[in-house]
Amino acid sequence: MSGNGRMKSIIVTRDLRKDYVMGTETVHALAGVDIEILRNEYVSIMGPSGSGKSTLMNMIGCLDSPTSGEYVLNGQAVQDLSDDNLARIRNREIGFVFQTFNLLPRATALHNVELPLIYAGVSSKKRQERAAHALEIVQLADRMDHKPNELSGGQRQRVAIARALVNDPSILLADEPTGNLDSSTSEEIMDVFDALHENGQTVIMVTHEYDIAARSQRVITLVDGKVEAQMSVDYYLARGIKQPTAAPAPAPASAPETAPAPEIAPTRETAPTPPPTTAPMDPPPPEAAPPAPGTPRPLSNPWAPPRTPPLDGGR
Ligand SMILES: Nc1ncnc2c1ncn2[C@@H]1O[C@H](COP(=O)(O)OP(=O)(O)O)[C@@H](O)[C@H]1O
Ligand SMILES: [Mg+2]
Question: What's the CA-to-centroid distance between 234 and ligand 2, angstroms?
């Protein structure tokens, strides 16, 4: 059962669940998530507020352990690891970028970027070299000695990206990295992610904004802790589906029900050209409140097709 695409998978989850017990109530933040992400893929995760996006990112990033299910990261079964080994894997494999930057306010950009290397036990000289190099990648070589409050929001986020990259992680995770930035600064940050992806970096990004998701290759939509849909961005772009009011498109005739995830992954170059459009993309809707009981739920993502293709042939 190990197909070609399977060998290139860097992330595989099977029936991943995360429950939070709050007094007498249990929140099923993840209610059985099966995803598969390929090395060098650029995937965005969308879905309404509370649908489990950050919880999934925290599991993928080894910041927290699932209640049950399997998670294989780069060939290693993460669910079986001790906390120590989890921390080691996290440091080696994962770079994490947050909406709020999470920089040390009193440390320079260089020192902020050095931090993961301190935890990894790298010598001071090597640390400085590698941190300086990471800052060059995000084009902040000339701001190394600045503290966060001496930097713009976009520059702060670039420092955070450099910090995420400094260990040369196999996966770069970003949870709403442009959520605190204005639109032109968001563009600047997205250009950084694009360049990293073009250089072979695997990128997984949570976003609410369709024009940001459109830069990725595949959109995974979560609803109520489950994968509602996962389709290539070209699927949506080629059909001009980008307005929240757009009717869901019929399933493509060429995509069989049993297509495995790797098959629907990136084909940007070969995809049909999207129809030309003059209308600017609508601003993203605010995060939807949960519908009243009994209300038919509108599609949380205007890009979501009416069905979820099974990940791996319904195995
Ligand atoms: N640490 C926690 N303790 C209890 N409940 C949590 C915790 N983190 C998340 N949740 C709950 O889990 C659900 C999913 O949250 P989250 O993953 O943050 O959603 P999203 O990022 O999609 O907005 C929500 O109902 C949220 O209230
Ligand atoms: Mg979140």
Answer: 25
Q: Name the closest-CA residue to atom 20, ligand 1.
A: 50
Query: Does residue 30's CB lie within 6 angstroms of at least one atom of ligand 1?
Result: no
Q: How far is the CA of 114 from the centre of ligand 1 (A)?
A: 30
- A 10 A CB-CB count for 43 gives 23
Q: Where are the domains of the chain?
A: 4-247+254-264
Q: Which CATH code is given to the segment(s) 4-247+254-264?
A: 3.40.50.300
Segment 262-303, tens digit of pLDDT: 333 333 433 344 444 444 434 444 444 444 444 443 334 444
Phi, psi of 77 (to 5 degrees): -75, 100
Distance 28 CA to ligand 1 centre (A): 9
Q: Ligand 1 atom closest to Cα of 56?
A: 17
The mean pLDDT of the chain is 80
Contacts of 283 (CB under 8 A, 6+ apart): none
Closest CA to 261 of 207, 205, 313, 198: 313
Q: Is 123 left (phi over 0), alpha (psi -120 to 50) or beta?
A: beta
Tens digit of pLDDT for each residue in 141-169? 999 999 999 999 999 999 999 999 999 99
